[in-house]
């Protein structure tokens, strides 16, 4: 039996609709697979378990269950933006599998992925001509922090230097970016979350009313704002990238298998 595990960071907010959208795009293309979802965030699993009154399975738990049938073959598809800490948590957890298992890479992995993500974002950017476009990701201290300046470089090839890619925390450092946008004389900014789902980080750290949110800090510079309130996972073309990564992972299983 073929199994496809979709491993996402998770969310406890209404942004669950993003995962439902991805699921609906993937399921018809892999109808010969049993499809499972699991969340890599222990906090999300605890909160969901409390709401459901049961236990939200971890990836390790799910793999141990699938190991009971030696005929199973498993692909674990990462539903993360970059191959950072959360992805490597998936890699470590995959060691619990004794049946043939392969891992599908996150959204931004190969150079072609960056091009395709840029093309998915381009209609939003072109819809605000003359405005600065601020794309805000999570940020990380993992070596994959370089994904953010790489995405900015690719986007600027399509839309020019009015595109800025920032992060909420850690690296790359975005502490002076608002001053840079203001210094260029932009009076309007389109803000797009570079997050798979527009969940807690979007609602609190990007559009929240706390003084440290991006909204509040941009408003202090008298910059008018438009917010795109959906995660990357709802953009046209994003699920297609994940599907291609799934196909590559299944091909790896064929090469390794009997």
Describe this structure in words.
The mean pLDDT is 94. This protein is an alpha/beta fold and 258 residues long. The chain is built from ten helices and eight strands. α5 (111-126) packs across α6.
Feature tags:
258 residues; alpha/beta; four-stranded parallel sheet; 10 helices; 8 strands; 41% helix; 18% strand
Indicate the structural class.
alpha/beta
Strand content: 15-25%
Low-confidence stretches: none
Report the span from N to C terminus.
14 Å
Short description:
The chain is an alpha/beta fold.
Q: What layout of secondary structure does this protein have?
A:
Elements lengths: L1 E7 L7 H11 L6 E7 L2 H11 L6 H8 L6 E7 L5 H9 L7 E4 L6 H16 L5 E6 L9 H13 L3 E5 L9 H7 L4 E6 L6 H7 L7 H6 L4 E4 L10 H19 L2
Parallel strand pairs: 1-2, 1-3, 3-4, 5-6, 5-7, 7-8
Helix pairs in contact: 5-6
């Amino acid at each position: 039996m073929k199994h496809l595990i979709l491993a996402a960071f998770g969310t406890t907010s209404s942004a669950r609709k993003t995962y439902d959208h991805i699921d609906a795009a993937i399921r018809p293309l892999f109808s010969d697979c049993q499809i499972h979802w699991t969340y890599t965030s222990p906090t999300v699993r605890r909160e969901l378990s409390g709401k459901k009154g049961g236990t939200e399975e971890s990836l390790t738990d799910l793999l141990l269950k699938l190991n009971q049938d030696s005929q199973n073959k498993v692909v674990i598809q990462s539903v993360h933006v970059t191959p950072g800490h959360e992805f490597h948590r998936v890699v470590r957890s995959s060691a619990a599998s004794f049946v043939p298992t392969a891992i599908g890479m996150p959204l931004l992995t190969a150079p072609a992925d960056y091009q395709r993500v840029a093309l998915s974002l381009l209609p939003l950017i072109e819809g605000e001509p003359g405005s600065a476009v601020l794309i805000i990701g999570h940020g990380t201290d993992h070596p994959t922090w370089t994904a953010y300046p790489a995405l900015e470089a690719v986007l600027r090839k399509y839309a020019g230097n009015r595109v800025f890619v920032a992060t909420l925390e850690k690296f790359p450092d975005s502490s002076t970016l608002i001053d840079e946008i203001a210094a260029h004389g932009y009076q309007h900014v389109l803000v797009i979350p570079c997050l798979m789902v527009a969940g807690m980080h979007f609602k609190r750290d990007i559009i929240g009313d706390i003084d440290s949110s991006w909204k509040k800090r941009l408003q202090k510079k008298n910059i008018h704002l438009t917010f795109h309130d959906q995660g990357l996972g709802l953009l046209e073309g994003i699920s297609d990238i994940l599907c291609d990564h799934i196909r590559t992972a299944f091909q790896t299983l064929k090469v390794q298998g009997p």
